[in-house]
Request: fold
Amino acid sequence: MLDAHGVRGLTLRGLAAELGGGLGSIYWYVSGKYELLELACDELIGRALDAADTEERLVPSPPMEVDLGTDDEAVLDAVRSLRRVGLALFDQMDRHPWLAAQAQLGGAERSNGLRVWESMGRPLAAMGLTERQQFHGSTALTGYVVGVAAEMSLQDRAADPDLPKGEQLDLVVGRWQSPDYDDFPWIRSMTEQFRGHDDIVQFAAGLDLLLLGLVRQAQG
Amino acid sequence: MLDAHGVRGLTLRGLAAELGGGLGSIYWYVSGKYELLELACDELIGRALDAADTEERLVPSPPMEVDLGTDDEAVLDAVRSLRRVGLALFDQMDRHPWLAAQAQLGGAERSNGLRVWESMGRPLAAMGLTERQQFHGSTALTGYVVGVAAEMSLQDRAADPDLPKGEQLDLVVGRWQSPDYDDFPWIRSMTEQFRGHDDIVQFAAGLDLLLLGLVRQAQG
DNA sequence: ACCTGAACACCGTTCAAGT
DNA sequence: ACCTGAACACCGTTCAAGT
Reply:
């Protein structure tokens, strides 16, 4: 997969050349570029879900920094489940920076899109939430996952790929000290946090906020 | 703005014709299509923030369905503030379905991107969260907003624009009863919820979960 | 300073023609 | 059934030339 060059960098001519075939032959297998991307998305999402299920090859989870305030084993189990799925999906989108922008997880016709939604919904039901709360919770979770992943993918793409990670952060944070940022004191106050930030930790922290909210809702 | 045809439907040739000018003259004012889109994004985000500030022309907020479990006026004020900004941004992206996919809110160089981040951050600081919690909270909020908005924009675009809303829902939900969905009992159980769903209510519900998590974190 | 439009270098998609 | 590549209808961008 030569998607290291992004969605736009994948041309049907390039793909045909890579496969040693003619340009038109692609259209025998696939209706167009859109379906090609959809299939690639579905494949990668499917693998992420497999990883979440089998528990192998799973990204190491950052420790949970929030206190859920419950020892109900059913609830804790559901939370662990949701966290595992969310982190597996994020990890996959982190590895393939074009994925997040492309993946319309919920409501997709592709079967793995449905698997995502089902994977989110079942634990929510097990937590004892009402159907309405389950519904809202599931779209909140999927929306959060692709939203944060997309945001971070864009942020990383904007950065100069030649510079080392540390210098990139210094460059951004350096701008924050300029007079342009006089109206944004809060952003400036985040200098230290931004310099030490880690994408997956940040993602997990927000996911845990959502999970905390859901636990509270189940308890209330 | 003829962006009723989406980002791809906006061609520089079409724009030049609309403006009654030559194709090349656009490049005198703007470096390319990318910058043009960035400017349009920034303008609309800016208007949304203005609406959130002035409290006029603001979308009616759905009632909060979660119990925050606090009467700390400073915290409640912060929550109201975050909710107002989030809803104003979502409303704008709901009105302009191409916006969400385009808007890299956080970390954008454009000044209104910074305004978004600052608007989210200040209330979080006022809630008494640690700097680390503020940082994580702000990215979670912005990520959630654009993520859910993007997901819903895609969902609405996929639908047949000729059919009335009710029939569209029936069509989707009808498919859920087919044998293809035998492996997705939870999705099937959401039939009733999906049929009666309302985008902005759904968005607000998830936002409130995040806010509930943040309030708990501040209290803990 | 500001505009013009032909020209260029690409796209995705189609389709008559091959095996 | 499966593949080919020229041809088509578009893009965004550049640039010598105008006023």
In short: Chain B has a mean pLDDT of 91. Chain B has twelve helices and no strands. Chain B touches chain A through 62 residues (CB under 8 Å). The longest helix of chain B spans residues 131-158.
